[in-house]
Amino acid sequence: MPYRTHTGAALARGALLIACLAAGRSLAQDFGDTPYVPTPQNVVERMLEIAKVGPRDYVIDLGSGDGRLVITAAKRFGARGFGVDLDRRLVRLSNRLAAEAGVAQRAVFYERDLYQTDLGRATVLTMYLLPEVNLMVRPKLLAELRPGTRIVSHDYDMGEWLPDFQTELAAPGKTVGVGQRSKIFYWVVPARAAGRWSWRLTLDGKVEEFELALSQQFQKIEGTLNAGGSTARMENARLTGEAISFSVRAGEFRYDYSGQIMNRAIEGTVRVNGGGRARELSWKAGRIEAWEPRFTAPDAPPVPG
Ligand SMILES: C[S@@+](CC[C@H](N)C(=O)[O-])C[C@H]1O[C@@H](n2cnc3c(N)ncnc32)[C@H](O)[C@@H]1O
Hints:
Elements: H1 6-22, H2 27-30, H3 41-50, E1 58-62, H4 68-77, E2 80-85, H5 88-100, E3 107-111, E4 124-127, H6 131-144, E5 150-154, E6 165-170, E7 181-188, E8 195-203, E9 206-217, E10 220-227, E11 230-233, E12 235-240, E13 243-250, E14 253-262, E15 265-274, E16 277-290
Parallel strand pairs: 1-2, 1-4, 2-3, 4-5
Antiparallel strand pairs: 5-7, 6-7, 8-9, 8-16, 9-10, 10-11, 12-13, 13-14, 14-15, 15-16
This protein binds S-adenosylmethionine.
Residues 33-34, 36-39, 61, 63-65, 68-69, 84-87, 90, 113-115, 128, 154 line the site of S-adenosylmethionine.
């Protein structure tokens, strides 16, 4: 992506740091953290729309600034949630703005380091941090957020964890960057699907046994299915949160699987086309063995310890 070049990232970081310095804060204080730059309101609303935020959602904003993400999620979309920020004045301001907006019960702000924040309640997580901070926080997101949690980031991606969706839009009034434009990146936290799975299907009165060896890097899955000694690669494989789907071709038969991963089981349906007809069967798979998914890039340095 063009903006991810060293020059682009450095420019963006420079612009943010300049904004920070203009606000009178020291460079030393902000190194490694993200200075305060607000997300333009139209971008806030688009981020929350992309995540399909609604009254059942719990939104957490990491580095919440003046609180606009969580306040808008509460006021316009009926959600609840909280924001955390290191800056006490911004936290006070956010709680005051939430009260003025009539959503103080549903939008709360804490003076807290984002790395010390428990993310377990989130159904939606928002952030506008620096590119390297996104990478530093990525393992925490993958470890603490439940599968299916939606993440929306303003302007910066998460490196090798490719987004499920991204867009760019005009951002009138934006005080950093070039051309008053913003990028939005969207991910769904993937379930841990990697491992060996097995199941049986009864086709035309005959019981067939299947075994799937599934590898996973973030939401990207690949696998080989073994049935009666012959193997076939998974095709069109998708993992979105806990929802998994893939197709397999074996001779004149084509199997289209779709289901939900629930810890040690997958439940769903399989459409079988072949032998001159199509039918839909229920599909229940059990996990024989769990493998650790690759949530780091192949070329990333090994995690110490
Ligand atoms: C770019 S601003 C984004 C503000 C708001 N989320 C928005 O989009 O309008 C980043 C915010 O993160 C806060 N911040 C930086 N490092 C942090 C940390 N380690 N923990 C909590 N907040 C942090 C800064 O004080 C700043 O207010």
